[in-house]
Structures are given as structure tokens and as C-alpha cells.
Design goal:
303 residues; six-stranded mixed beta sheet; three-stranded antiparallel beta sheet; Lambda Exonuclease, Chain A; globular; single chain; 2 domains; alpha/beta; 36% helix; binds iron/sulfur cluster; 10 helices
Length: 303
């Protein structure tokens, strides 16, 4: 990855995030397999061309700083910090012989049979309890440790809230009281079976598309694209402004039918396609992705 420095920030910050990481064929990390397959393959293919500005990486720098402080703390005799884990998946699926799942867990506590992970997040993540990605990631680490013969039955995320405002605490009962929170997960046998299936299916999909042309890669799902969902605007014909925007076509049709009684032929329904927020704002490989290029071209034409 090329690190740009459009704001002339101190060189030290760049040194902190710069890495000579080169992907190893057939080796994918616990965090990588949580990404959409299209993004994983494009990242690998264009590793040397991906650009990111250091000014957009301040929370990554913050995360590195948090990890570095914790790395220097003293662990107990049954705890293992920043332990590198890996496993050849050929052991559980013949078709995946030579494919390796790897990862580095923040803290494995064998005494308490628990995996810990340090994170940073926004207040919204806590308010909406949007923890499924964290649960899945911690469970993958736990599964990996279990394969090595150790018992793990829970996970805990310690997260620092980047945009926490003390002034909001009294205003809303859902607002997190403190800028640091712990989120706990219990892992059952069923969870382990489900995550093992997810790992195998994901690696099989990666294997299938590893050498595919960019245009043939499976499209990220609407959820993976953070698609905001199509909306249906009821509006006067030739007007841009809607009288009301509905979430479903059925609701919009009902509204239009009512208006038709008093104003026949005056109103119409306009479908407004949902935005793919990840493609537009957060995806590091968007400039290599045909889907994103199509959106850009369409927007250019509409201007
Ligand atoms: S730009 Fe969108 S569709 Fe393309 S890889 Fe990124 S998230 Fe997926």
C-alpha cells in the first residue's frame, strides 16, 4: 500500500503505519476473511497500487497506539499477548489443503478460557449494539485456539469510543456512560460449528475466485456495500421534490392511490436507488472495482 501525505504530517506518523506487508499466497487472516470476497481478491491483486492518505488514517494510528500500550502491560502466567496463530485448513477439509488461516490475538486468557480484543469505535456502534462483526471475529480466534487443543468459551471486546461526549450521557438513557466499554460474548458448541462452516465456505469461495478476472468476481452483497435500500418517492409529475418518500413500493402505491382520488394523473412514483455507502466512501479498492466504476460513470452522465 502507498501512504500519501497530502497535509505534510510528521514523518513519524507515516513510519508508524507503513509496512512492507506482501500477501502470502493461500494464507488469509481472521480479519481478512470477514471482508467481502471481491474486496479480498482485489486487495491482493492491487496491493502495491492501493493508496491511502495518512490524514485519513488517524484512527488506525490511535488503534496502533492503544495496542502498543497494552502490549507493554504485564500478563499473568495463563495469559498470552499478541500470540500468532495459524492452521492449515487441509486438516478439516481436503479441498483446502495448503490454505492457511492465520491471526494474531490481542490476549488469550487460558485461565478464564477467554479471548480479549481491543477496539476503537463510534458511539453509534454502542447505541445500536451493532456487535455481530466483533462477535464473529472473536469467535474465529477462539475457534483457532480451540483447534490447538485449548478450551475457550467466551470473548470480550474492550472498546474505546472515539466520539464520546460526556454532555450527552444525561440526555439519553441509551448513550454510553463512559468512553470505554466492554462487550462480552459466550460461545457455544453450535457457535463453533457455525463458524467452522463459515471459515470453510469462505476459503472455498476465495479459492474459486483467486485467479478470476476482476469482472468475474462475485459482487459484494447490499449489506456488505452498506446499501441504504431503495426508496419510493411520491411526487408531482415534473417536480423534483417528493411529497413523501416511502421505504416500500406498497406504501408508495397506497399513498398514490389516495392522491389519485382527488388529483387524478397529477402524481407519480419515482424509485430512488439506495446508496452504496461503503463503495462511495470507505472501500480501499473501489478504484479497481467495476461495480464502483459503473456507479461513477452513471453519476457523471447524470450531471
Ligand atoms: S467498491 Fe463496493 S462492490 Fe466494489 S469491492 Fe468495494 S464494497 Fe465491494
Amino acid at each position: 500500500m502507498k501512504i500519501l501525505n497530502s497535509n505534510n504530517l510528521p514523518e513519524q506518523l507515516i513510519n508508524l503505519v507503513q509496512s512492507d506487508y506482501k500477501p502470502t499466497p493461500k494464507r488469509y487472516s481472521c480479519t481478512t476473511i470477514l471482508k467481502p470476497t471481491r474486496q479480498i481478491i482485489l486487495e491482493r491483486k492491487h496491493n502495491d497500487e492501493i493508496e491511502q492518505d495518512i490524514s485519513d488514517m488517524c484512527w488506525l494510528v490511535f488503534g496502533i497506539a492503544v495496542h502498543s500500550i497494552i502490549e507493554n502491560s504485564q500478563e499473568s502466567i495463563t495469559q498470552f499477548k499478541e500470540e500468532k496463530l495459524s492452521m492449515d485448513l487441509g486438516k478439516i477439509c481436503k479441498e483446502l489443503d495448503g490454505y492457511v488461516l492465520s491471526g494474531r490475538s490481542d490476549l488469550i486468557d487460558l485461565g478464564n478460557k477467554k479471548i480479549y480484543d481491543w477496539k476503537t469505535c463510534s458511539t453509534w456502534k454502542i447505541i445500536f449494539k451493532d456487535y455481530e462483526d466483533w462477535r464473529k471475529e472473536t469467535l474465529i480466534y477462539a475457534w483457532l485456539v480451540k483447534q490447538l487443543g485449548f478450551e475457550i468459551n467466551s470473548g470480550e471486546i474492550v472498546t474505546f469510543i472515539k466520539d464520546h461526549k460526556k454532555s450527552q450521557v444525561k440526555i439519553s438513557k441509551d448513550y454510553p456512560k463512559f468512553p470505554v466499554q466492554t462487550i462480552k460474548f459466550k460461545f457455544t458448541e453450535k457457535d463453533y460449528q457455525e463458524i467452522e462452516k463459515f471459515i470453510i465456505d469462505k476459503f472455498l469461495e476465495i479459492k474459486k475466485y483467486e485467479n478470476a478476472l476482476d469482472k468475474d468476481l462475485p459482487l459484494c452483497t447490499p449489506e456488505e456495500r452498506y446499501n441504504t435500500g431503495d426508496k419510493y418517492a411520491v411526487k408531482k409529475k415534473n417536480n423534483k421534490r417528493a411529497s413523501k418518500v416511502h421505504d416500500t413500493l406498497e406504501e408508495a402505491q397506497k399513498h398514490l392511490n389516495n392522491l389519485e382520488k382527488d388529483y387524478p394523473g397529477v402524481y407519480e412514483i419515482e424509485k430512488r436507488e439506495g446508496e452504496n455507502r461503503k463503495c462511495m466512501e470507505y472501500c480501499n479498492v473501489c478504484k479497481f472495482c467495476d461495480f464502483y466504476k459503473e456507479i461513477e460513470e452513471k453519476e457523471e452522465e447524470e450531471k
